[in-house]
Design a protein that fits this description.
With 490 residues, the chain is an alpha/beta fold.
Length: 490
Amino acid sequence: MNHPLTFLALLTLAASAAPKPPDPPPLEQPKPPPAQVSSSEGMPPLPYPVVPQKRQERKNPPQPPVLLTKIRTADAEDWARTPHDLKKLLEWMSGEMGASFTSNIKTWSEISVNPRENPVLYRSGYKPFTLTDAEAGKLREYLRNGGTVIFNALVGHPDFYQSALVAARQVLPENPVYRLRLDHPMYRSYHEIKRVTYRERAVRDGVVSDNFPWFDGVDIDNRTAIIISRFDIAMGWEKNRHDSWGYEDADARKLGANLLSYVTAMQEAGRSAGKSVELADAAGSKAGSLNIGWVVHEGPWKSRPAALPMLLRKLNESTGAPVSFQWREVNLSDASMFETPLLYLTGTTDFALGENERANLRQFLLKGGVLFAEAGDGRQSFDTAFRAEMAKVLPDHPLGPVAADSPLFREPNRLPEVKARPSLAAQLDRRASVSPELFSAEINGSTAVIYCPRDLAAGWEQAPAPYAAGYEAADATALGVNILFHALAR
């Protein structure tokens, strides 16, 4: 990982020594958001164009599109403490970044489940809250349709933060809530953010012990759909100097700009060719078909659910190998994991296996099974965690680089070089083509583990993936076919 799990001091709310959270700023009667902010050209990370003017409209400039919808509740004491937060953030983005957007205010019941009508929902407050079943169901549909919700703990109040965590689990119970690591694209979507400055009150009260930002998230497939700010960002947007556990103004605004840049860049990421393709196993017996188990772990493990079936289809087309598109979830603590010869493991952040899981995986590999792993989006935090786990699972069989003349790069597809996606090329001095990178662990002269630290699945899925540090679709698919072909031949 690129920073430790404990880089911020956790609040111990039940302890008598816990610091008292700051009071919210004085309540000001909320005003409706402005009809518009000054018109300007849209910046690249925020792909909503400013509406072009016709000649006869020069005296009435068009209204910029709505990007943010602030959630109003029945308790104005809670949600309306920073009535100008969105207005000030969008004005700053317009002046500093050339991004012209506006906002509006709605209740949970008034929002549309179509994200094009309210792309980003923003809920800020300091009091504990709950979602009704109807609100949670509607929010779930909205998020599944491609929308995003941002929760902000006003003044950094832990009551709101804990409520947001509960709400996230209520809305998407099947997906883990996790701390965003510094390799998450949100921290580089516009500004490169590695450290932040907290307000003096947060430092004085001891609720922060370093300069790392704290956001939690819940992913749907490969994008973070729920984002929770543990410490306050709204007062920094307003330049409100009231005491808070939050970020200083400059960093709060950079974080806000990055949030919106990430969200808008990822809105098309959920749409991929793979998700529009119906894959069905051929009629008749599946005897002899290649069956793959997808490893479940504590982190976001299923980032691109359509990718593996698409790769299997290509393997079938290229080699004629019988495959089953119905991969199954595999828990390493379950004895059923030994029923499949090939396991696939991926993720977008760090993770850890339990001792029983490590022991089972070790036995699986020693008995001839194959593990194929890749770092989702090419994330460093997953790469570090995977290498650490493999050192524990196979301490006597370390991962090593696959040689350039390996069959993995020659059969059935010759791949002396591969084309890098823009995100990877940016990391590699803008090189468009690179040598493919794989690592393997050998047991008794046979390959037991094949690992790619670059993203492959976005290519298999043929997905728009602006932050995937990996290989372009054709080369990623060809390399994936080689890996499966090698595992099958073994």
